[in-house]
Predict the structure.
Amino acid sequence: MIFQEMNKQQLKDLRDEFSEKYNQLKSRNLSLDMSRGKPSPDQLDLSIDMLGCVNDESGYKAENGFDCRNYGVLDGIPECKKLFANLLEVDEKNIIIGGNSSLTIMFDYITQCMISGAGEKPWGKQNVKFICPVPGYDRHFSICEYFGIEMITVDLLEDGPDMDKVEELIKDPSVKGMFVVPKYSNPCGNTFSDECVMRFSNLKPAAKDFRVIWDNAYCIHDIAEDNDKLMNIFEACKGKESEDFFVEVTSTSKISFPGSGVSAIAASEKNIDMIKKRMAIQTIGNDKLNQLRHVRFFKDVDGLKEHMKLHAEKLKPRFDVILDYFEKELSGKGIAKWSNPKGGYFISLDIMNGCAKKVVSMCSQAGIVLTDAGATYPYGIDKNDSNIRIAPSYPSIEELKDAVEGLCICIKLVCAEKLLEN
Amino acid sequence: MIFQEMNKQQLKDLRDEFSEKYNQLKSRNLSLDMSRGKPSPDQLDLSIDMLGCVNDESGYKAENGFDCRNYGVLDGIPECKKLFANLLEVDEKNIIIGGNSSLTIMFDYITQCMISGAGEKPWGKQNVKFICPVPGYDRHFSICEYFGIEMITVDLLEDGPDMDKVEELIKDPSVKGMFVVPKYSNPCGNTFSDECVMRFSNLKPAAKDFRVIWDNAYCIHDIAEDNDKLMNIFEACKGKESEDFFVEVTSTSKISFPGSGVSAIAASEKNIDMIKKRMAIQTIGNDKLNQLRHVRFFKDVDGLKEHMKLHAEKLKPRFDVILDYFEKELSGKGIAKWSNPKGGYFISLDIMNGCAKKVVSMCSQAGIVLTDAGATYPYGIDKNDSNIRIAPSYPSIEELKDAVEGLCICIKLVCAEKLLEN
């Protein structure tokens, strides 16, 4: 029955029933963490043989004979550049290999824009605003907040950000850029449609130093068979003089090891040059032995894609536990809707307005840790207090069953209480 | 015979003799690189077993059970923090483990000061000057230049920077800091005396956000038996409320692998907190598997120190080739003096004023690549045109013999020509 159609007594009965269930839940002293998109240990085991791929026997030299143990090679060893060039479908000259995380690449790139600018005056000497599709990735918002970049939200729709709004906002020359997750977005799991990517490539921002950080974190992170396809942004830009507006990043954090992966940038030659100029001051080159490990283990893009099927085998049952339980317990009740992603690491759950913070807090008290409510919005403020990000990758199937059961108890209890308040 | 005491004819004869030798040198088509402080392949071989220290058999968990493959642990795994705490003789709570290079730590720290300040207004919104002991490390100067920090030189004397000048300069509130290499300095090989370190600890800068980047790159990098001892700056600061002025960095770049080492910061709790706040936005944590490899391979500080003796065995003969040849060919001629360091990676050579650029250029034409003349001064300007940095670590003994022979030919030729000009 739809909650909103219940009378007071029905709601009271429901509240009492789930209040009792919540007390039972608390008495179980659970300790479960669904807060971050962390691969599970059994996913990490999939890459364990990589650790043996560089040793005294196999050698430590790149294909061109370069000793990967020593200083040098700012932008990555050639075979690793080739791997990522093929992955992102760009030319090797448009690739720079980074350290163990694309987060650091993004932070350092914004630093570069603040200090040296993006072809114009340093951002640090300008008033800088970013467009933020919401719900979005909390770490993107944190970077903006750290650098004092004002955040303007636009809705993330089924097929990408609200491009009407984006096209309007970029008429303001102080609007300097965006962070976007174009495929299997965090947390919604949406993939930008071809039309959306084309509209991005056609943008004519007032700011000549406009930059979209195209965070392609989940480029091959499918969990369903009929996976999403993302149009190549640099292909879309061809002939439009807009390629400088896009800086794409990705990493193997959720392919090999989250703490010891390899990241990469894809960008126009002009942007690559500017990034290398900064890197020449900042670093002696990233860890080339780890680049070598990755290339030797995965071999090529086909190797990467095959490996992702093994991840999907671990992930799909975990997503299904959550989605099946939501379907059974929450559908047709008017209190929740959720995403059903074909890839990525998250399920985005929207519950009745004004209830998310309370639900997350009650879950926490019952030993079920979720991402903070509001985290998917700039400054942690979800004005509807409705969105909850679910990260099902890390717990075991059994733990997920407990977690989703507990979560649904909290949702029903909080929603019933909320309706009784009115 | 002293060049300056020769008559014209003697100088002409000398010039002709060495001009002939230079032509012979060029005809040998050498290809030698003494430009950077790069360990030789036989030094890198010393750590090769480290690559096998983390694998499926040995496991990938830290002592506290943490899975080093996954996300998390911003400041380093406990056993790695302990290793560096013991190395730098500070408490573990004063340590943060970085990525593969202390250069990046330093760059990122200056970024942090530019964006967020060092307890006061962001440096990016102030006029910032740094005191630069010269000759010094070119990459320190490059960082200052990148961030638009004005550089004021002071002489690096036998026992440290000219502290009279430093104490005078810090009365200017826009003088915000210094980069120093307190032990086996780059390029001079000097180590700061206890008195110098005490004077540092007693500094009363007008700028409350004054910061000395204490780049202890060569903390255990002895090549002589009677090695230098450096007083612990944080011990010296005790009871003086000056500890926040110092941020110490080091790394294993020249202990394990230059491209795949581990770096560390030692700083006051206040500075550590500020650095962690930035890191929480910038990174998902540095490569913990590599931290684990290092701890398992070196075990403890004694292990590190024993390992450095193996490096010294490779380095000392290389330094000796250069120093012995200088002694034989250049001493008592009034045209050159040089350092005789007990550790570090460089020999600092000062030749007759106005000759360094010419010598480096002629060496280069003969296939002997040296560090650019001027590189040891801010903006690449050595107003005496006298200092040349020699990096003897990378070439083989035979190559070094060729290189130093060629270098001395060029020096004598250029000095004779210079004197003939007058």
DSSP finds 13 helices and 13 strands in chain B. Chain B has a mean pLDDT of 97.
